[in-house]
Amino acid sequence: MSYKIEIAKGSLACALGEGPHWDAAKKELLYVDILGQGVLRYVPATQECYRVSIECGTVSLVVPVENNANQYLLGIGRTIQLMEWDGKSPKPTSLKILHTVDNEDDRIKNRFNDGKCDSQGRLYAGTMGYLEQSTLKLDDKKGTLYSIQGNKVNRHFGGIDISNGLAWSPDDKVMYYIDSFTYRVDAHDYDGKTGILSNPRPVFDLKAEGVVGVPDGMTIDADGNLWIALFDGGKVIHVDPISGKKIGEVKVPTGKVTSVAFGDPQLDTLYITTASKFRKDGTVEPEPGAGELYAVTNLGVKGLSAGYGYKGN
């Protein structure tokens, strides 16, 4: 694989970059800085990047609201919020809480992690238990996967450690899902009309395949193969979910690789978010290339689709 990887020109680095989303209509990449509490908008054509500060908590996901140019749905802590932002200002015009989840006493320190919209414009987003940064101790099995559409919040399943990567198959009948500490990718039958998930089964087991690293964010290409970011693995792996085998990889110049999304007008660039290295006291330890947004070209494949926006009803 004669790919080329480089820091995306003009992009801004993050403490904990996550959640890349290619907006085909605007030809721009959205991503978040979870610990840095920011949402970023990167425009490859002009090599410009803008950052808006989210002062009310950790922001873990961003998706644009369809047909509303300045509206974005965010995961902030245990809430889903609607942000109005002009795309350039350092502060949002407004933030409004739409939903709050995990209200039980033993889950009040939970937060949303990864999230994406399906082809119908529903938001699927999962939570994770409290992670103590100094010890990296997780309050395990406290997460839940939800889907959100309008005023409805549907609970799909719980007992999750760290809710992470999501992707839908080319025929839109399967949803692939990662709970990071299971070290595997599961497939669920998916009903686009109702949003119901059923028949969960494993399709790729990292430990059984000798893959080092924690599975994090994920996307899918037009051939139906998965691209999975490996936190503490320093790479993105290319996986055939039908055979359950790794068929390739992209090495990244830093260890903490967090998520992936295909972008650019032809969906032929793979964007990769990464995280900085943290000391036990929670401060950032300088490491060249850590926290940067990377762009990978010459992969010989294209993404299945651009990111879907939130329809809200």
TrEMBL record:
Matching Pfam families: SGL
Record text on cofactor binding: Binds 1 divalent metal cation per subunit.
Domain SMP-30/Gluconolactonase/LRE-like region: 16-275
Subcellular location, principal: cytoplasm
InterPro entries named in the record: 6-blade_b-propeller_TolB-like (IPR011042), Regucalcin (IPR008367), SGL (IPR013658), SMP-30 (IPR005511)
Keywords, comma-separated and alphabetical: Calcium, Cytoplasm, Hydrolase, Metal-binding, Zinc
Enzyme nomenclature, EC number: 3.1.1.17
Cofactor(s) the protein requires to work: Ca(2+); Zn(2+); Mg(2+); Mn(2+)
GO MF: calcium ion binding; enzyme regulator activity; gluconolactonase activity
Subcellular location: Cytoplasm
Coiled coil: none
Catalytic site positions: D216
Known catalytic reactions: D-glucono-1,5-lactone + H2O = D-gluconate + H(+)
The family this protein is said to belong to: Belongs to the SMP-30/CGR1 family.
Protein's name according to its UniProt entry: Regucalcin
